[in-house]
Amino acid sequence: MSISGFPELLPTQRFAELAVLDRLRGVFELHGFAPIETPAVESLDQLLRKGEIDKEVYVLRRLQAEDSDTNDSGLGLHFDLTVPFARYVLEHAGHLEFPFRRYQIQKVWRGERPQTGRYREFTQADIDIVARDVLPFHHDVEIARVMAEALSALNFLPPLRLQVNNRRLIEGFYRGLGATDVPAVMRAIDKLDKLPAQAVATQLVDDAGLTAAQADQCLALAEIRSTDTSFVERVRALGVTHELLDTGLAELAAVLDGCAELTGGRVTVEADLRIARGLDYYTGTVFETRMSGYESLGSICSGGRYDALASDGKVTYPGVGISLGVTRLLLPLFADGVVSASRAVPSAVLVALPDEDARASSDGIAQALRARGIATEVAATPQKFGKQIRYAERRGIPFVWFPGGGGHAGHTVKDIRSGDQVDADPSSWTPPADDLRPQVTTKD
Amino acid sequence: MSISGFPELLPTQRFAELAVLDRLRGVFELHGFAPIETPAVESLDQLLRKGEIDKEVYVLRRLQAEDSDTNDSGLGLHFDLTVPFARYVLEHAGHLEFPFRRYQIQKVWRGERPQTGRYREFTQADIDIVARDVLPFHHDVEIARVMAEALSALNFLPPLRLQVNNRRLIEGFYRGLGATDVPAVMRAIDKLDKLPAQAVATQLVDDAGLTAAQADQCLALAEIRSTDTSFVERVRALGVTHELLDTGLAELAAVLDGCAELTGGRVTVEADLRIARGLDYYTGTVFETRMSGYESLGSICSGGRYDALASDGKVTYPGVGISLGVTRLLLPLFADGVVSASRAVPSAVLVALPDEDARASSDGIAQALRARGIATEVAATPQKFGKQIRYAERRGIPFVWFPGGGGHAGHTVKDIRSGDQVDADPSSWTPPADDLRPQVTTKD
């Protein structure tokens, strides 16, 4: 009875997802990002302001509204966390200190027809920095660093490439080349993921009005990538000059320099001059992220710089941010069995129950363990100990505690994986750190 | 531009809310409750199964659905976490181990006309234990203990009374008394919160068909409350006998005994024989919770035992659970300024920036502090130090770090509240534990 497009996890998977969310939150807070949460809904006016995604909005109506013709509430579920954040900044500007760093980890909804890899409900984790009037460029570097560090903390994921480009760089290049319809060039270049280079070249000529030689130059630019600043020299070698290009090259080089110490492990930060994010409203730095072995997912973490994240007509709020698609990232890994958790319950210990009269005593042992942070449950019924051990086994609980005669004496605890059984005191025994909580597990 | 009924918090309040959610989660997991999350939506069939709350459901439709007459998606936002959990149990029964303990902390939505104290979006924290066929009574005690412990962990709340009663007890009493329409008696008794006793007595006679003497007995029962098992004797003294009454008295006494060691601090567990929860489908233990000074909120944490939480026609799943209204509890405390957090950002330290060229060096200091779990930000611009200190002050950041000449020498850190400034090493200096993260604060 699952509803198509609305994923639902079993407890082991939810443990893994919570581990992801906790680690993200930990890194974001270490960098001074404050948590915010916005309602699931925004007014339709807010949601449709940019006009292009109206097909994807779920509108709310009260089931028993009185007037059936006008029963829409005027509210829709948010389809991203950027529109709500822009509204939040304007609404609460008087109570916020700028530059304002926020993270926001929430569900979003899109009323799409479901298809493989598309969800109608999914979790995103966004970080943004927004300022009043002017947002210094170094915050672009900061956003890249924080997300690279957050992705590195998810050390059970396949290798990731955080790809960075700069709209000023490519716009300056296209203008320096003589292109007049820059958006059309970006839209064509954006298709390099899906179309062969020759087809894109044709579009550059047919739709963007370039000569064949200009189109080749654009494709040559799009082929450049590097994990250090060597891309600058390769762009220069194409012989195009423009003031915007200079700015863009300097900015992109600064991001790569700023991330140099973070790259090379599980997360690689690289300049990739093919990244355009043609349909979005970015004005400088742009980000996308690919996961090794899961390239068909497209970008699982994207963002960039907006010169006007929000504006109330008097004050403009520039911003830079990046959004990680948590569901988009995790569900394929769950489906492939690549990522899971070590057990289905938080409990590290099951306290056995010799008979029903011993429940208070077994409860007391459990409370002593819990008081020291050890998640513990007590057997539900006083079955034979072999059955109680199998009860623990089915849940993945690693330890079974056998109560002693009373007080602190005579207790034993058994690691049911190894069969080792040792004397133990409920006021001092502690499981190995790895057994204390469910651990994220990977296939290899 | 806030949307009525959809509360939105500022960062300090969100820190306090997150502290609440983290502590609840911590206690629930210590007791072996596994986390689950269900989609925001259920099919309307599921949501309307019980038929009584249909006015409150928000239905979803795709904004640009093709057929405007049948454009409802057949989906509605869940209005509680019990209906989704019952569906989850049936859907995933083959993958769950019973008894299954789960906690679920999520938003729910009700399409009500907003009024004071009513929200259209709010967060609930539910715990339930569900079994296949039979759920031993001791799990009722367990649920009461776990929620009492969780509420005790919220040590910044006003005192709370967790009130327990038992449907078998009151039903047995009413039947022993000769009542034939027990639901009508419960509905009348349920109104004791809002109506004077005399008005309820009149309803007991007029609507439930009792004699005036029987009505007086019902009111006498409803007046009984105790924080120990002395209520048993007082009920017996009313002279009514019935087999169900005996069972109910024994069960309620067991809950009070089981919670004896937990009561008496900030949370009092008490038998309150007025609690009926007339409109809900409970069959044994019932819970409500009142917060001192906020009695007008009604019950902020309610639940009980269902003999059939879910059923697929072949197997029945009895359950016992309790649901804490997190938003309902916190928003009045925020509004009154009773609960808040110590700052608006996670940062414990602001690293000052002598000039823009020093940014890499200040970033390095920040990274050294973060590596040891100290949330740190770097000043946005190289203003005069006085301005940078005020920047920290406005955010509530307690410490400002002044970089030394290079390496580990010459650094100082200033507590901007006291003005104390000391030499410090970024690889070893640590703030006091209370300053490490934003703390929940209370008025007194």
Describe the protein.
- The structure is a homodimer of 444-residue chains.
- With 444 residues, chain A is α+β, with helices and mostly antiparallel strands.
- The first copy, chain A, folds into 2 domains: 11-341, Bira Bifunctional Protein, Domain 2 (BirA Bifunctional Protein, domain 2, 2-Layer Sandwich), CATH 3.30.930.10; 349-442, Anticodon-binding domain (Rossmann fold), CATH 3.40.50.800.
- Chain A is 34% helix and 23% strand.
- Chain A contains 14 helices and 19 strands.
- The first copy, chain A, has helices at residues 11-30, 44-47, 82-92, 138-153, 167-177, 182-189, 197-206, 212-222, 231-236, 243-258, 326-335, 359-370, 385-395, 433-436, and strands at residues 34-35, 41-43, 58-62, 72-77, 100-109, 121-130, 160-166, 225-226, 267-272, 285-291, 301-311, 316-325, 339-341, 349-351, 376-378, 399-402, 412-415, 421-423, 440-442.
- In chain A, strands 1-5-6-12-11-10-7-9-8 form a 9-stranded mixed sheet. The first copy, chain A, has a 5-stranded mixed sheet with strand order 15-14-16-17-18, sandwiched between helices. In chain A, strands 2-4-3 form a 3-stranded antiparallel sheet.
- In chain A, helix 12 links the parallel strand 14 (349-351) and strand 15 (376-378).
- In chain A, helix 4 packs parallel to helix 10 (243-258) and helix 5 packs antiparallel against helix 8.
- The longest helix of chain A is centred in the N-terminal third of the chain and has 20 residues, at 11-30.
- Chain A is elongated and about 90 Å long.
- The mean pLDDT of chain A is 93.
- The interface between A and B is large, with 80 and 79 residues.
